[in-house]
Amino acid sequence: MTDNNFGRLSRLLLSSKIKNGQTILADEYFTAPFKIMKPFAKENGDISVMLLTASAGLMQGDRQKITLNIGQNTALYLTSQAFEKIHKMTNGYAERATDIIMEDNSFLNYSPLPVIPFAQSDYRAITNISLTKSSKLIISEVLSCGRYCCDERFLYKNYSSLIQTRREERLVYRDNTIYRPSQRDMENAGFYEGHTHLLSLTAFGFKPSEEIKRLLDGLIDVLSLDGGTSITFDDDFVFRVLGNSGDELYKISEQATGIIEKFK
Predict the structure, then answer these.
(1) What pLDDT does 188 receive?
(2) What are the tens digits of pLDDT across the range 203-222?
(3) Looking at residues 22-35, what average pLDDT do you find?
(4) Pairing of strands 75-80, 107-110
(5) From start to end of the chain, where are the E strands?
(6) How confident is the model at residue 5 (pLDDT cuts 50, 70, 90)?
(7) Which pTM does this prediction carry?
(8) Residue 185 falls within a domain, yes or no?
(9) 3 in a domain, yes or no?
(10) In this structure, is residue 4 part of a structural domain?
(11) Which among 112, 44, 53 is positioned nearest to 78, based on CA atoms?
């Protein structure tokens, strides 16, 4: 990864550990534009962390590296304070590499606010996840078609996101999303099907998968949503829903997370 507009690679590192029965941040390190708000401790010993950024969004040439080390027996909720805006780019692109390392009996809910790719933007992300047999992870994203209120629907150049998940070093999930609206009709069947937003939520380590799938499919039916739930070959699952509002889909993500966490 090369230097970005801040003159260097932007980094965020968070590590958690247990102290007196409470999850705490054992280590934190960040450079511009990253910041974090003072963590919120929950009564059950979990912790909530909000990611802040001191910029208007991702710009051409931005390079970011996020590392999350979720320690043994800890539970952490990570979100962001604002929608992620990916700005117009002429020749370059922005990229983010994320490493998530989960230790035994750890839990992470990583649910940043929705992403808005502006016209002519180019974003490339790689996420590598390392799980143990006893760790649990919920990771979600709401992706917009763009600034649809400004008549920008699928005018971005590229949005790519590769997620690779290993459990005990064995590959259990791989999702290579590449959206290039100039090459594909993103409005129609197989993509957004007339909608403006897509929620993708993946959960690892929760059992029984069939029961959770039944409850999530029930949520889809009750709310009359366009979406579905799939179980992977390793008994993890993917929950995806189409909609027309980032706020609406984020709330649905929270509802789905609430269902999943009952099996934590």
Answers:
(1) 85
(2) 999 999 999 999 999 999 99
(3) 96
(4) parallel
(5) 10-19, 22-30, 34-36, 40-41, 47-53, 63-70, 75-80, 84-86, 94-102, 107-110, 115-117, 122-131, 136-144, 158-167, 170-179, 197-204, 226-231, 237-243
(6) low
(7) 0.95
(8) yes
(9) no
(10) no
(11) 112
Type of residue numbered 257: T
Q: Which residue has the tokens 């054992």?
A: 26
- The half-sphere exposure of 216 on its side-chain side, counting CA atoms within 13 A, is 30
What is the domain range of residue 129?
Answer: 10-261
* pLDDT range class, residue 108, cuts 50, 70, 90: very high
Query: Residue 4 pLDDT more than 60?
Result: no
d(CA 264, CA 134): 11
How many domains does the structure of the chain reveal?
1
Q: Which two tokens stand for residue 239?
A: 């929950």
Closest CA to 104 of 180, 6, 18: 18
* In-domain check, residue 1: no
Find the farthest-apart pair of alpha carbons in the chain and give their distance in angstroms, rounded.
55
